[in-house]
Design goal:
762 residues, alpha/beta, Lambda Exonuclease, Chain A, Rossmann fold, eight-stranded parallel β-sheet, 27 helices, binds iron/sulfur cluster
């Protein structure tokens, strides 16, 4: 029977914690962790005799002081050998078997010994044989190590190992008790609910309770972060959840989630939350090179990580980037890997979508039981459609293979030949294209997949002897390509782009809904929310909703009087852009003259923006009104400080008006909060349609074939989403007032009008 002091844990989890040691090495990790449970594994199991069993589920209770460890796992093989049974633990690797030191690794022995103990206990065996089988995935070479143990030895051993986990388990237990008590006492952290807030919070709680998905259109101003996190925290207190993930694509929304948790902490909540920052951003080194020879935070990482995590969890609750960095420096551990390791213990994890949905980097050590008690809160979920397409697509280019062919010549013969074979494939593809700039095909290029597999195998050998750099990057690209090829079905298309300098072949995921469903499978509940989840049927379709799932549309808490909407029916279509420049520039000038203040003007492209900007500047130069305005112009790839400076120019007390030219779908059109007089007007030029292009047209054709409106799916819905986001910058609080100008004649057409929010319609 389970008591409060029971620790349910898998053998693997337990031994990995206790026996962690060594350094981070991205080359070796790549090789050694890719092949769990793959063909090589099964090949060994196929060689078992009739009396042998494979994948045997075993469990046992192990008491250590006042803790009861309920340990379970699945042993690869239980062989009916005489005079004693043998537990076989298989480990497959792409590396060289000669690299294995002594008679195998302690962590592998520990896993096997636990299984042997469990079998011996259950079947009352006085002694057991324990075997480690290492298998090389490509050469099929095998190395075996065997030991024998009495039952007493096994029993002593597992108790000793479990005792080493106990301090951590005790700490978790203490924390969970304090956490649950604090949650029981936690009231909604504001004096009252704002309009719509109670409805959203209630729907989130109900969805978690019932284990369904919720698709919520939650407008700006209702406090959606607190309305989603508060019920999730309560669900932890009620025992429904063990953890929730707050998933978001941007730093500012990540900070909003941290603020909400900090605010609840100020009201007594004792919750542990970890924020994960991208590796490239949080890395302490000038160059991200995760090898012990190049990075002191990688060197010996696993020897120090348990102490670092214990220290962090003992003293901190809301573990923001700054907190993670401080402890990472203190314990000299890589801040990125440290945040991942801490996340496995946390009650809440704030991170990007890809840690859940992207098969390349999603959390690997999550067990089915934990997932069942985990909820996903997906903020700004409208962004997930295109992000998911990227996650599930993969491409290979000719150029790196040509470069590697040259680099490996005379250095690594197998690698050289494998890289050359891929390069040759692309040369043949170029010939076949007959000068066409692109090809669109339905058939998966099996030959290229096989060549990529051969390349990956050769690269593993080369990585094993220390070759890195371009080889490692190309190896990852090949692995991603191979993985994606396994997902390839009728929802994909093969798109090849050919230029003089390169050939790029992409397995392009057109409809990510089923893969999102697959990656999100097993989690108790998903809450997708955004101010612009509109039309909700489109997002439900693209994000993999089922019939049992809920939708919710919370009306805007702001009054129509706060917003003055003007539609200027001008054509902004591509062919009319030259003609439209002057009237748009004149409109900006007139509006700013009549209603001084700070303005954003959003455009569908940089080219269009620059053209109108120049016209506007000329107009201002010739203007004799004497009333100028300060002007800002967005540039592609602006560094963070420049972006901050751009937004800092929006001050309520500016003496002169400010006109900021920016693009829709860019860094300034989403997640920017300029309340009060910091922003008095937004002008949106066009209906935001993505540029006509081959990929967008492939989407259009695909959805037309599916009997849906392909043009809407590929162009109109994503485009109008950008418009809604851009326009949504204007009214951020009950006291805001402002002017919204929509420039395009299509705003008068029903097809576009129906996508506008109610408060924009008059
Ligand atoms: S600090 Fe940077 S280079 Fe070092 S292991 Fe971490 S991410 Fe890699």
């Amino acid at each position: 029977m389970l008591t409060k002091a029971t620790v349910e844990i898998s053998v693997r989890h337990l031994v990995e914690y206790v026996f962690l040691s060594g350094s981070i090495d991205v080359r070796l990790n790549a090789i050694d962790t890719m092949h769990e449970g793959t063909k090589a594994h099964q090949r060994v199991q196929r060689s078992y005799g009739e009396q042998d069993r494979k994948e045997v589920y075993v469990k046992a209770d192990i008491r250590v002081d006042d803790l009861l460890f309920a340990v379970d796992g699945r042993c690869d093989g239980l062989l009916g050998t005489e005079p004693m049974l043998t537990v076989d633990e298989i480990k497959s690797t792409g590396g060289d078997l000669d690299r294995i030191e002594g008679d195998g690794y302690a962590v592998h022995w520990a896993q096997a010994l636990f299984y042997a103990y469990m079998v011996a206990k259950e079947q009352e065996q006085p002694s057991m044989r324990v075997q480690l089988t290492y298998v090389q995935t490509d050469t099929e070479e095998e190395r075996r190590f065997v030991r024998e143990y009495s039952y007493t030895e096994l029993e002593e051993y597992v108790h000793e190992v479990a005792a080493r986990y106990a301090p951590y388990a005790q700490q978790r237990r203490r924390h969970e008790q304090a956490r649950d008590e604090s949650i029981r006492e936690l009231a909604f952290p504001f004096e009252s609910y704002r309009a719509g807030q109670r409805k959203l919070a209630g729907a989130v709680y109900k969805s978690i309770e019932e284990g369904v998905r919720l698709f919520a259109k939650a407008p700006t101003g209702i406090g959606k972060t607190i309305s989603t996190t508060y019920p999730a925290v309560k669900a932890i207190g009620a025992g429904m959840l063990q953890r929730f993930y707050y998933l978001t694509a941007r730093t500012t929304t990540r900070a909003a989630a941290e603020d909400a948790l900090l605010f609840m902490r100020s009201k007594g909540l004792q919750l542990q939350a970890v924020t994960i920052t991208a590796k490239e951003k949080i890395c302490f080194q000038d160059v991200v090179r995760c090898e012990k020879e190049h990075c002191p935070y990688a060197d010996g990482y696993y020897d120090r990580i348990n102490g670092a995590v214990l220290d962090l969890l003992e003293h901190e609750s809301i573990m923001t980037r700054a907190v993670i960095e401080a402890y990472a420096r203190k314990h000299r551990v890589c801040p990125f890997e440290f945040s991942l390791d801490a996340a496995y213990a946390a009650d809440a994890v704030i991170c990007d979508y890809n840690y859940i949905f992207d098969p390349r980097i999603s959390f690997k050590r999550q067990y089915a039981e934990q997932k069942k008690r985990t909820a996903l809160l997906v903020d700004e979920a409208h962004n997930l459609v295109d992000r998911a397409r990227d996650m599930f697509s993969a491409e290979l280019s000719k150029a790196p293979f040509l470069a590697l062919q040259r680099e490996l010549k005379g250095v690594h013969e197998t690698g050289f030949r494998a890289a050359k074979a891929v390069n040759d494939y692309f040369i043949a593809l170029r010939k076949r294209s007959d000068g066409a700039p692109h090809l669109v095909e339905r058939q998966l290029p099996d030959e290229l997949v096989a060549l990529a597999e051969a390349f990956a195998a050769a690269a593993e050998q080369a990585l094993g002897i220390g070759i890195g750099g371009l080889l490692l990057d190309t190896y990852f690209a090949a692995q991603n390509f191979i993985r994606t090829a396994k997902l390839y079905d009728e929802r994909y298309v093969v798109y090849t782009e050919l230029s003089k300098s390169d050939v790029r072949l992409k397995l392009f995921c057109l409809d990510p809904s089923h893969l999102l469903r697959h990656m999100g499978k097993g989690y108790r509940s998903h809450v997708y929310f955004s101010a612009t989840l509109s039309p909700v049927s489109y997002y439900m379709d693209m994000l993999g909703a089922g019939e049992e799932d809920y939708t919710l549309a919370v009306p805007s808490p702001f009054s129509k009087e706060q917003l003055d909407v003007i539609v200027k029916p001008l054509s902004t279509r591509y062919n009319d852009r030259d003609e439209s420049k002057l009237p748009i520039a004149q409109l900006i000038k007139r509006l700013v003259g009549e209603r001084p203040g700070n303005y954003f003007v959003f455009f569908p492209s940089y080219a269009y923006m620059n053209a109108v900007y120049e016209t506007y500047m000329e107009l201002m130069e010739w203007s004799d009104s004497g009333e100028g305005a300060d002007v800002l112009l967005q540039r592609p790839d602006m560094p963070e400080e420049e972006r901050d400076g751009f937004l800092a120019a929006f001050q309520a007390g500016n003496e002169r008006s400010l006109v900021a030219f920016a693009v829709m779908g860019g860094v300034f059109s989403e997640g920017v909060d300029l309340a009060g007089d910091r922003l008095v007007g937004v002008i949106v030029v066009g209906v935001g349609l993505p540029q006509l292009g081959v990929e967008r047209n492939m989407l259009k054709d695909y959805f037309n074939e599916q009997g849906k409106s392909g043009y809407d799916y590929a162009y109109v819905f994503p485009g109008m989403n950008k418009v809604l986001q851009a326009g949504g910058r204007l009214i951020r609080s009950e006291t805001d007032r402002g002017t919204l100008v929509l420039i395009d004649d299509r705003y008068l057409q029903p097809q576009y009008q129906r996508l506008l929010p109610e408060e924009w319609k008059e």
